[in-house]
Amino acid sequence: MILQRNNVQVSGDGPRTIMFAHGFGCDQHMWDAVAPTFENDHRVILFDQVGAGGSDISAYSSEKYATLAGYAGDVVEIGRELRLQNAIFVGHSVSAMIGALASIDVPGMFADLVMVGPSPRYLNDGDYSGGFSKDQIDDLLTFLADNHLGWSAAMAPAIMGNPDRPGLGERLTASFCATDPAIARDFAKVTFLSDNRADLPLVTARTLVLQCHQDIIAPIAVGEYVADAIPGSRYVLLDATGHCPNLSAPEQVIAAIRDFLHVRAD
Questions:
Q1: Pairing of strands 42-46, 206-213
Q2: Which fold, 2-121+195-265?
Q3: How confident is the model at residue 264 (pLDDT cuts 50, 70, 90)?
């Protein structure tokens, strides 16, 4: 039931397992250009967050998923079902923090954590610059609640951040539009109002932070903050723009992950 709930797909073969997790408004297909390249030397796990893609939407509970801990709990359940140990977790956007929480909950499950465009706090707070004011977040959530399709069409290209490649923005728009509106509204609220800054120093998994230029969701200062807060983490600023390098610059994401894993192998 756990694997069906999250539409878990397992492929590849190798001594270690690598799990890929998608961000808000997306599904596991956001990793189509990245995940298959690891199948020759890893067991690869893809899944959909409840409410996204091919997941069991009837499993959604607004109470359970009122915080990111609910989503992290699903990751842990999938990991236990597949008997993961010493695995690699690759999380994009909000799933970077979901993976961090899962790694804290069960330290032996994920030995390596790759965070792509992470943010522990989207709201500005004193000296901390998350990228958004409270009014901006309120407006964003209101727009999404009032007009899901309009929000998707307006926000997806801006989030993608590659105006010279409109097809990428169109792909992200289609993904946003395919998400259940009510669940998308709840997940957006949980995502943009979360504050996981205090959790970062608790991460013991070996961590790679991948950051892009001109990311309106998770600016460079946020990526640097995450890297500074996680003990011993490695920070890489990709030669890519926008919030979704898994779509816009998959070769760079693949190379950075492989380099990170190669250092461990050495």
A1: unpaired
A2: Rossmann fold (3.40.50)
A3: low
